[in-house]
């Protein structure tokens, strides 16, 4: 090297890795929705959630309009209250099959599954309250020679 050329020192830049917790809310596959499917008895509910203002529609109706029983409405809202997500998510549900109680149970399971995908840190709360457990009970079939599943025709000795 000649004296006319300046000496350039190579400086190493050390990248410091900061270990941060993984982001709880990863983006879903289809853009901005998280999905969950719930089933109970003969009912199936497909639940979609996204961050929003707290809209809750079931089959294009408001939740309170769709479920006339206050019990069903409260059971569904308990999932959101226990996870502290009430009012911060828009929830859209397509429910079919079964009756109102079966559909409410299916919505609870579908909502819990969608919330688990939305924020994996809610998994413990959902499991502790049994929102992620499917209810396996179904209607028992009618048996031949009797009027229902367990009921018998009146017995006559003579």
Descriptive account of the structure:
It is built from four helices and five strands, in the order ββββααβαα. The chain is α+β, with helices and mostly antiparallel strands and 158 residues long. The protein has a domain of 95 residues: 2-Layer Sandwich (Ribosomal Protein S5, domain 2), CATH 3.30.230.10. A five-stranded mixed β-sheet has the order 1-2-5-3-4. About 7% of the residues have low confidence.
Q: Given the helix and strand composition, which structural class is it?
A: alpha+beta
Termini distance?
A: 124 Å
Report the count of strand segments: 5
Question: Which stretches of 5+ consecutive residues score pLDDT under 50?
Answer: 14-24
CATH class of the domain at 34-128: Alpha Beta
SSE inventory with pairings:
Elements: E1 34-40, E2 43-51, E3 56-58, E4 61-62, H1 63-66, H2 70-82, E5 89-96, H3 100-118, H4 123-128
Summarize the structure.
The chain is an alpha+beta fold. It is built from 4 helices and 5 strands; from the N terminus they run E-E-E-E-H-H-E-H-H.
For the structure shown, list the relevant keywords.
4 helices, 158 residues
